C-alpha cells in the first residue's frame, strides 16, 4: 500500500463522518456589563460609562458644564411634583453629577430634567450600600445596617481589621479611607476602596474590638427604567460611572456620546476574501486529476510535434502525475436526487436536535478528530513529501508498522504526518475549552486552517454528476437555510440556525453577578460551533467575530467543482481528439467563481444593513446556480449539462487509460499513452469508486 492510500484510508472513517455532518448541519452575549457610552472633553482621555435603557443616547449639546446637584436634593429623589426652590441653574447647558441610591435611576433623570439639566451622570458610591439595606441614618454606630457580602464587597480581593474606636460615623465617610489602606492597596482590589462589613472581632483583645473591612465592588451598571412611574420617559440622556472614575475627577466641560465603532468592520471583508479563496481553491483542487491529465496530454502532443523532454522535465512530470498523491485519491461519492431530499430531512432533524439538546461538546470532539486527519492529508503529508524530496531522507519511506482494518503497511512518513495532524488537533481542542476561545489567535487561526482542509477534502470526495442533482441539492439547501434563519423564530421564538451556530443560549444570570463571579452557573458564554470560519472583529470594543459557515463553502463549492471538472473534461477530450487548442478555455468555472464572490459580498452587505445574521445561501444559490443555467442555455448546452455531460464520462475513460494503460475502459478516443515501454502514471484507480 502506498503512502497516500494509507493516509486516505486511515482518514476514511473521519471523512465519511464529517461529510455526513456537513450535509446534516451546513451552518452557514456578554457575561459582564459593557460601557457603551463615553464622556469626552478636549483636555482628557475618554471616560467610559454604562448606558441607560430609557431616554435618548446623545446629549442635545456638545458642550456641557458639569454641576453638582442642589444640597437640599442631593440624590434627586424628591417627589417629581415638588417645586424647584432655592436653586439657580448655571447659565450654560449643564450635566448633573448624581450619587446613586435612595430612588430609581429614571426618577433621578426626570428630576434632573425638571431642574433644566441636559444630561445626567450617575456615579457609584459606598453610601447607597447602607441605604439599600434600609438604614435611615448612619449616625447610629453599631446598630446600623451594613453592606451585603458578595453583593457589595468581596473579602478575598482585599481585607483588613480596623480598631472600632478609630472609625468615624457614618461608616461610609471618606474620612475613614486612610484607615483602610492595607485593604484598598491589595492588587486584587480594582476599586481601590474598601467598606466596613459589620463583622466585629473581639477575640484578640476584648477591650479593643476591631471591625472587618473588605474590598468594595465598584462596577458599571445599566440604568433600567422604572415601570411604576406614570410620567413620560426622560428626554435627556443618562449614563453610569464607577466611584473610582468619579474620584479621579470629571472635566469641567464635557460631552456625552456613544463609543465609536467601525461602520463596516474590516473583518467582514477578510472573511469574504477568505471564503472566496477557499471555495475556489477547494473546487479547483477537486479537478486536479483531470488537470494533470490535460497537462500530460499537452506534453504528449508537444513531443509528437518534435519536441523532446529533458531528464529533469521527465522526472518532474512523472512526479506531478502521481494520482496516488491526490487529496482523497481513490475515494469519491457522487450525489443524486435522493441525497438532496435526504439532506433537507436529515439536516433539519439534526439541527433541531442541536437546538434542543446540549451536545455541542460531542460535535466539537468529532470535528477535532475529522479535522486532524484532514490537516494531515491536505497539508502536512504533501509538505513532508516535499521535505523528503529536498533532503533525500529515505528513512521516511521505510515501513515502521502494519495496521489492521485494510490500512496495511505504514511508513515513517505516514505515521509522522498523521501524528502531527492529531497533535495540532489536540492543541486546538484544548483552546476550544476556554471561555471566549475565539479571542485566542491560535484557536481561530487553526480553526480557519481546519476549515480550509475540510472543504478541500470534502469537495475532493463528494461530487455532483449533473446540473439536475445540483439544482435539487442547492434549492433544498436554499429553502432549509431561509427557513431556519428567518421563519423558525415565528415557530420556535428564536432563529434555530443562529442559535445553533452561535453555540446556544448566552448567559442567563445577572451580568453584574457574572462580572464578579464568572464561574457562577448561567454565566458561561458559549463558543460558536466550530464548523465555520471565524475572523475577530478589528478595532471594535464590543468584540465578536465575523463568521461564515462551512456549509456556505461546500454546497456552492459542489457546483463550482462540477463546473471545474466539466471545463477540464472538455479540454481533455478536445485535445485527445487531436485538436491543438481546447475550446471555451474560460468555461463555466471562472464565471461561477465570480458569481460566488458577488453573492457572498451581497450577504455581507445584507448583514451590515440589517444588523443581523443572514442565510448566505439566499444570495449564493442564485448567483452560482443562476450563472451556470444562464450560460449553458446561451451556449445551447443546458439539456446535456442538466442530465449529466457525456464529455465527463469520456474524460474519465481517457484518464483511466492514461493511468492504467490497460485499455480496460477503451482507448479509441485517446489512443495509447505509453511511450518506450514507460507507464506514465500510477496503476489504475478508478475515479468513480464510491466511498
What does the model show?
With 691 residues, the chain is α/β, with parallel strands linked by helices. It folds into three domains: 3-31 and 263-303 and 358-660, no CATH class; 37-124 and 221-258, 3-Layer(bba) Sandwich (Glucose Oxidase, domain 1); 139-216, no CATH class. The chain has 21 helices and 16 strands. The protein has helices spanning 3-10, 12-24, 105-115, 127-131, 181-184, 243-247, 266-285, 288-304, 311-320, 337-356, 360-391, 412-432, 441-461, 467-492, 496-501, 511-516, 551-576, 589-610, 617-634, 638-643, 646-660; strands at residues 37-41, 44-49, 64-68, 94-99, 119-123, 153-163, 194-201, 210-216, 238-241, 253-258, 333-334, 399-403, 408-411, 462-463, 532-536, 545-549. It has a seven-stranded mixed β-sheet. A three-stranded antiparallel β-sheet has the order 6-8-7. Strands 11-14 form a two-stranded parallel sheet. The chain crosses the membrane at residues 340-359, 365-384, 405-429, 441-462, 469-492, 588-610. This is PA domain-containing protein. Residues 301-325, 657-691 are annotated as: Disordered.
Amino acid at each position: 500500500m502506498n503512502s497516500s492510500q494509507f493516509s486516505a484510508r486511515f482518514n476514511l472513517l473521519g471523512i465519511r463522518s464529517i461529510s455526513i455532518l456537513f450535509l446534516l448541519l451546513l451552518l452557514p452575549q456578554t457575561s459582564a456589563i459593557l460601557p457603551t457610552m463615553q464622556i469626552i472633553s478636549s483636555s482628557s482621555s475618554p471616560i467610559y460609562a454604562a448606558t441607560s435603557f430609557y431616554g435618548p443616547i446623545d446629549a442635545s449639546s456638545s458642550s456641557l458644564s458639569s454641576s453638582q446637584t442642589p444640597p437640599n436634593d442631593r440624590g434627586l429623589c424628591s417627589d417629581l411634583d415638588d417645586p424647584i426652590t432655592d436653586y439657580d441653574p448655571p447659565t450654560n447647558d449643564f450635566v448633573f453629577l448624581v450619587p446613586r441610591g435612595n430612588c430609581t435611576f429614571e426618577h433621578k433623570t426626570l428630576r434632573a430634567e425638571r431642574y433644566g439639566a441636559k444630561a445626567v451622570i450617575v456615579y457609584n458610591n459606598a453610601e447607597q450600600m447602607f441605604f439599600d439595606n434600609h438604614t435611615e441614618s448612619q449616625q447610629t454606630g453599631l446598630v446600623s445596617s451594613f453592606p451585603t457580602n458578595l453583593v457589595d464587597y468581596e473579602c478575598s480581593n482585599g481585607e483588613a481589621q480596623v480598631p472600632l474606636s478609630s472609625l468615624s460615623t457614618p461608616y461610609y465617610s471618606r474620612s475613614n479611607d486612610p484607615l483602610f489602606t492595607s485593604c484598598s492597596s491589595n492588587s486584587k482590589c480594582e476599586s481601590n476602596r474598601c467598606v466596613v462589613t459589620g463583622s466585629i472581632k473581639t477575640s484578640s483583645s476584648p477591650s479593643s474590638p476591631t471591625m472587618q473591612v473588605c474590598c468594595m465592588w465598584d462596577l458599571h451598571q445599566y440604568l433600567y427604567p422604572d415601570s411604576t412611574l406614570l410620567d413620560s420617559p426622560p428626554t435627556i440622556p443618562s449614563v453610569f460611572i464607577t466611584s473610582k472614575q468619579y474620584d479621579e475627577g470629571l472635566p469641567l466641560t464635557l460631552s456625552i456620546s456613544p463609543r465609536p465603532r467601525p461602520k463596516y468592520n474590516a473583518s467582514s471583508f477578510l472573511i469574504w476574501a477568505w471564503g472566496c479563496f477557499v471555495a475556489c481553491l477547494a473546487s479547483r483542487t477537486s479537478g486536479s486529476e483531470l488537470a494533470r491529465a490535460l497537462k500530460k496530454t499537452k506534453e504528449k502532443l508537444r513531443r509528437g510535434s518534435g519536441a523532446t523532454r529533458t531528464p529533469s522535465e521527465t522526472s518532474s512530470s512523472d512526479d506531478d502525475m502521481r494520482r496516488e498523491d491526490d487529496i482523497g485519491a481513490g475515494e469519491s461519492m457522487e450525489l443524486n436526487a435522493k441525497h438532496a431530499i435526504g439532506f433537507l430531512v436529515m439536516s433539519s432533524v439534526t439541527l433541531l436536535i442541536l437546538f434542543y439538546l446540549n451536545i455541542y461538546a460531542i460535535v466539537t470532539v468529532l470535528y477535532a478528530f475529522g479535522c486532524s486527519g484532514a490537516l494531515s492529508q491536505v497539508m502536512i503529508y504533501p509538505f513532508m513529501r516535499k521535505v523528503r524530496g529536498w533532503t533525500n531522507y529515505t528513512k521516511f519511506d521505510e515501513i515502521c508498522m502494519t495496521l489492521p482494518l485494510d490500512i496495511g503497511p505504514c511508513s515513517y512518513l505516514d505515521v509522522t504526518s498523521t501524528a502531527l495532524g492529531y497533535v495540532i488537533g489536540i492543541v486546538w481542542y484544548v483552546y476550544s475549552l476556554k471561555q471566549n476561545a475565539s479571542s485566542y489567535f491560535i484557536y481561530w487561526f487553526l480553526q480557519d486552517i481546519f476549515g480550509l482542509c475540510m472543504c478541500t477534502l470534502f469537495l475532493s470526495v463528494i461530487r455532483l454528476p449533473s446540473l439536475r442533482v445540483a439544482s435539487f441539492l442547492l434549492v433544498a439547501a436554499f429553502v432549509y437555510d431561509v427557513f431556519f434563519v428567518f421563519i423558525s423564530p415565528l415557530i420556535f421564538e428564536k432563529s434555530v440556525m443562529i442559535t445553533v451556530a452561535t453555540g446556544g443560549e448566552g448567559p442567563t444570570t445577572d451580568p453584574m453577578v457574572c462580572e464578579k463571579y464568572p464561574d457562577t452557573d448561567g454565566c458561561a458564554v458559549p463558543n460558536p460551533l466550530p464548523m465555520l470560519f471565524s475572523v475577530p472583529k478589528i478595532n471594535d470594543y464590543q468584540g465578536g467575530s465575523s463568521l461564515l459557515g462551512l456549509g456556505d463553502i461546500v454546497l456552492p463549492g459542489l457546483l463550482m467543482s462540477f463546473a471545474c471538472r466539466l471545463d477540464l473534461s472538455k479540454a481533455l477530450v478536445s485535445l485527445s481528439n487531436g485538436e491543438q487548442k481546447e475550446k471555451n478555455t474560460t468555461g463555466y468555472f471562472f464565471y461561477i467563481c465570480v458569481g460566488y464572490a458577488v453573492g457572498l459580498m451581497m450577504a455581507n452587505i445584507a448583514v451590515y444593513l440589517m444588523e443581523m445574521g443572514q442565510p448566505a445561501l439566499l444570495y449564493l444559490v442564485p448567483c452560482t446556480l443562476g450563472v451556470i443555467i444562464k450560460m449553458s442555455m446561451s451556449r445551447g448546452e443546458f439539456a446535456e449539462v442538466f442530465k449529466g455531460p457525456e464529455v465527463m464520462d469520456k474524460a474519465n475513460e481517457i484518464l483511466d487509460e492514461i493511468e492504467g494503460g490497460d485499455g480496460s475502459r477503451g482507448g479509441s478516443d485517446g489512443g495509447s499513452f505509453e511511450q518506450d515501454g514507460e507507464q506514465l502514471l500510477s496503476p489504475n484507480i478508478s475515479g468513480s469508486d464510491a466511498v
